[in-house]
Amino acid sequence: MIEDDNLELFGKAIKIEPENSDAWSNKGTILTNLKKYEEALEAFEKAIEIKTDDATAWSNKGIVLDNLKRYEEALDAFEKATEIKPDNATAWINKGIVLADHFKKYEKALETFEKAIEIEPDNATAWINKGIVLADHFKKYEKALETFEKAIEIEPDNATAWTVKGYALSDLEKYEEALGAYEKVTEIEPKEIGSWINKGTVLANHFKKYEEALEAFEKAIEIEPDNATAWSNKGIVLDNLKRYEEALEAYGKVEIEPNNAMIWVKKGIVLDNLKRYEEALEAFEKAIEIEPDNASSWINKGTVLANHFKKYEKALEAFEKAIEIEPDDATAWRNKGTVLANGFKKYEEALEAFEKAIEIKTDDATAWSNKGTVLNNLKRYEEALEAFEKAIEIEPDDATVWVKKGNLLEDTGKHEEALELFGKAIKIEPENSDAWISKGIVLADSFEKYEEALEAFEKAIEIEPDNAMVWVKKGKIFEDIGKHEEALEAYEKAIEIKPKYICALLNKGAVLANYFKKYEEALEVFEKVIEIKPHNVTAWNNKRTILTNYFKKYKEALKAFNNAICIDPENTDAWVGKSNIFIDLEIYGRASELISKATLLDKKKINLFINKAIISKRRRKYIECKDSLEQAISIDPDEPSVNNYLAECYLTFGDLINASKYVEKVLSMDNENAFALGLKGKIKIEEQDYIESIKYFKKAISSDLMNPTYLLWDSYAKYLNAELEFSSSEKKYQDMLLAIIRELEKVDTCVSQEENNLKMIPQCLKSLVIYLTKLAKSTLIYLNRSEKLTVSMSEKMDILISKLENPKIIAYNYYFLGCFYYKINDYSTAVDCLKKCTDSKSDYDTKRSACETLNNIWDNKVRPSIWVWWLYSPLKRWTRRVTFVILIFSLFGILLPSVFSKMINFINDLVLKTISVYQPALNYPIIKSLISMIIISLGGFFSSINWQDNTISLTFMALIIIFILGSPILQRFKSSQIEIEIRPPSTFELAPSLIERKLKALESNNLDIKFLHFKQIQHKYK
């Protein structure tokens, strides 16, 4: 090599003339170029020893000392050089570089560069270094740009000048001009790798021209295949192009620079995009191991821990570590706020973190957006709206913020505006699935445009087919429009994507139970939820509902809760669930004891007070019921069931204002809540606004098709309206009654009656068995011997009672149908309905009313023939038949005693033979004797009748029997001597208060138990 040859020549020169300072200086220069700094230092020191005032030697010595990181000595050397030769511009430049780079004395450095320029105005290097200090340390980019342009004016082909000019232009956000500067460098020095890297960086970061940027980085790699920065930037661009495998391959060149923490960080980001979260976490931890004080590594580690492993505690620690390293890192503060909000629901603390991020970086659109989300959660809607608007002002093309703002407007009831914003978001970013989802939700929930909503969800699925939440939303739409098969398929698809998705599992179970009556499968689903999330109240409630309401497996449910309590005696949910069993079995004393135990564990558990309220209501202790509900609502003011129960309670007291307040609150949260809609309808009845009440009952029926009570209330409201608006003679009145009848006839389809083999048992015997069973149950509860035995026996007794009883609602419905058929003069159908009412389970008052009405219609409207009255009467049919037979036989025996006596003897022989042949068990002397005695006595009585001796008395007796037989059709008898008039009962009138009384009696002990859908509200952070 030339330098080695020159080094040898200067070595020979020194041997010839050891005191030649120039030879020593030249030798030092060559050694410096060869990076042999220690030997170079010796050479310069020898030159200075020979010639102490050699400014060049001192300057070169300073350069060597700088390379050896002996900055103090280097500075001394440069100062010595300038002292010896004040007009040595190079020495001044080198002194300035040391002052700036190693002593942070930027003012002095700037003075030295200006001194160099004063000495040598055309020294481009001096101008360049002056500009660097102005830009990097004083942020005076315009002045820096002027100095760089001066350097270029002096040396138009100075690549360094063009490079730093590009930096200054970038700082001034003049990216087009910056790109031009970097391209100029590539023209001047095509092999200058930095220029290609800079060009690619501008293309990627500011023009999003990733393909062109990729070409620039590949050119840099071609020049220097081992350049880690080029490979790293290539990886970033490939990542943005979603070519993740190629990006990972680029970062795989990490062996070029294995201790470069940032390369490990970038590699981790790509692995995260590839959903290789474990490897991504390892990459970030490797970066931390290399450079523990790298804030970016900690931030990315925290992000992976939070987003994919739900390890919020560790994620928070990572973000706090990043903040400790770089207190002014806005991203660290922003991510800390995200974890506090999403992971811990600490919205106030999260808000502080976002505000800190904004304080550091006022134009951080994401921080403003997240601040808005937190304010929304804190119900500070005006401030949230301002935050979203600020984020949009900063980044108007960020579709996510438009979606968030739209969601806020939707939550505050501004549905039209919300829909417009979702459309705006879709226009900005057609592939934004969140925008399509939100659009679908508002179309379905606020405008009931289900088909359009489905189209929006389909579009979201097309964009993001593995988004389980969209499938759940789609399933809910199918439910709303009655497509239950499709709803089930949608929920199953969501579960296929995300097997532990609680929302999808709960909705699947609810659909299986509510619409397909597949209780076994539904139970398995709810048990799966409990396995995933043992404290999910909805799953426990639904499991208990199935076990108790459909399988009547109270014993099994009790065992489940006892096991839960055994594992964790402080599990309040288990105690509450156990109390539910005893409430269902009407063992209120034991239920109250369990609630008291649960209260000692957790006084803030809302279900405790709900259960207390249910017990108080069933015991008719309405004041206590109200007090319990008010305690419940103080715990969770937004719980729909508590608001509903409180509204019902106030309605019972006649406080319509408070009842309306709580109902409106529920409907503002869920405008399809059937219970609330029903209550609103009842309130409107009390306010005598019957038209509005009908509307609310219609909505309640639509929301809860399987609850027939709303059909009865709707019919009642229509009847009240008909009574108010029309007279009974008007055709419109009759038409309205027909409409009511059609509605009441739907009740039977809503009430399922279990088929059993007990239908042939007489109602009186059923009633006796029910009474004795209830007595036995009360005795068992009173004795309180064993919890397990009490539940087991009560369960069996309740099963027997439920088989013997028909639902009360059937009796009430038949009663109302009978009354309304009577009102439209359809007496035959009215008789059938009232007969069914008397045969069904009902309270004493209802049965008595039905019997009175039935007798009235039968005797005064139907007016049957004698034979029909005696043989086919709807009431006491067998009593009348037996009476009729006795009267006929008595009349026959009085009129023809001898014939009748012979017939009696014939019957006696026939009966005794039949008993002997067909019923051997009855073939006992005492039984035969008893039967024979009765028949012979009858025969003897009639054979003793003598018309000759008793003509008058027998005639009178026969006339009485004939009169009794004919009395059913006798309305008025008159002769010249006597007048008999049988006054018909007064015309029957159906009083509205009677219907209302029956409906309230029906509901008095009812619990509104149904399967709950799990509602999930998501707030996404960027």
UniProtKB/TrEMBL annotation:
Residue intervals passing through the bilayer: 882-900, 921-945, 951-970
Keywords on record: Coiled coil, Membrane, Repeat, TPR repeat, Transmembrane, Transmembrane helix
SUPFAM superfamilies listed in its UniProt record: Protein prenylyltransferase, TPR-like
TPR repeats: 21-54, 55-88, 90-123, 125-158, 159-192, 194-227, 228-260, 261-294, 296-329, 365-398, 399-432, 434-467, 468-501, 503-536
Alphabetical list of Pfam families matching this protein: PPTA (PF01239), TPR_1 (PF00515), TPR_11 (PF13414), TPR_12 (PF13424), TPR_16 (PF13432), TPR_17 (PF13431), TPR_2 (PF07719), TPR_8 (PF13181)
Single Gene Ontology BP annotation: RNA processing
Entry coiled-coil feature ranges: 344-391
GO terms, molecular function: protein prenyltransferase activity
Keyword Transport included in the entry's annotation: no
Name recorded for this polypeptide: TPR domain protein, component of TonB system
UniProt source species: Methanosarcina vacuolata Z-761
Lineage: Archaea, Methanobacteriati, Methanobacteriota, Stenosarchaea group, Methanomicrobia
